[in-house]
Write a structure and sequence with these properties.
Length: about 250
């Protein structure tokens, strides 16, 4: 019952993203005919993350029929929405969750920047912020699967994030109690000025145009370390995002 409701909700939200945010999808190359690790950048949000729904829309448009297992920050379970995440096919972000999904023949979706990428400030909205997190590359190498970078532009314009609030997170020890290193200071509708809470509560996003691009699959260069592979993926994603936003007009795309 819950799974059917969540599937319906997902279709509805993806439909809103297509219309309200005028989602444009660019597919450089079809996904490989094997399980792959989809590595994406965050937009803004916790429950409301425009990039996640844009990715679903892009995968639908690209005709991807292999199941996709998103790995989700444990904050979802701490805030009580874990059962909804699970009903949508998501699992807690861990090596074990990913390897199990690959063994089942699924693609796995990760957003390595997590809270840092999701809560980045307005001035950094067109940057890929992974904060030195490179475990995704090690995971792909261990599982023997390619990495498919997925880049979305525009979500950072859905509200005004004044600061990522990393210093606040340290002060209030949010990294320990909420497992988050960011407590963004933002201005949104209907909450006005908020600290951190908009990352959990839904907000009314501004009608920014979203563009999602599925890049060609990547394999590590011969002899490359996991760190070098991760940096190469992030560099490729940043190149794509920079090109996608070079002549971008605010909200209009």
């Amino acid at each position: 019952m819950l799974e059917a409701a969540v599937r319906g909700l997902r279709r509805g939200v993806v439909g809103v993203v297509r219309r309200y945010h005028r989602l444009e999808v660019i597919v450089d190359e079809p996904l490989p005919d094997q399980p792959a690790l989809l590595v994406a950048n965050h937009g803004f949000g916790g429950i409301v993350d425009l990039n996640v729904f844009a990715i679903y829309g892009a995968l639908d448009e690209a005709g991807v029929d292999r199941p996709v297992t998103p790995l989700v920050h444990r904050l979802a379970w701490l805030t009580g929405v874990g059962p909804i995440v699970e009903a949508a096919g998501g699992r807690p972000a861990s090596r074990e969750s990913a390897l199990t999904a690959f063994a089942e023949g699924n693609h796995v979706l990760v957003l390595p920047g997590g809270d840092l990428d999701a809560g980045k400030s307005w001035s950094k909205r067109n940057y890929i912020v992974f904060g030195g997190r490179r475990g995704f590359a090690k995971l792909a190498m261990e599982a023997g699967v390619p990495i498919v970078p997925v880049v979305t532009a525009g979500a950072g314009e859905s509200l005004l994030v004044l600061s990522d609030g990393q210093s606040l997170a340290k002060t209030f020890r949010a990294d320990r109690f909420l497992r988050t290193k960011a407590l963004p200071v933002s201005v949104s509708v209907p909450w006005g000025l908020n600290v951190g809470v908009v990352g959990i509560l839904p907000y009314l996003p501004l009608p920014t145009k979203l563009v999602t691009r599925i890049l060609p699959a990547m394999w590590p260069a011969q002899g490359a370390s996991a760190a070098e592979y991760a940096d190469a993926v992030q560099h490729r994603m940043q190149q794509a995002l920079t090109g996608m936003t070079k002549n971008r007009k605010l909200l209009r795309g």
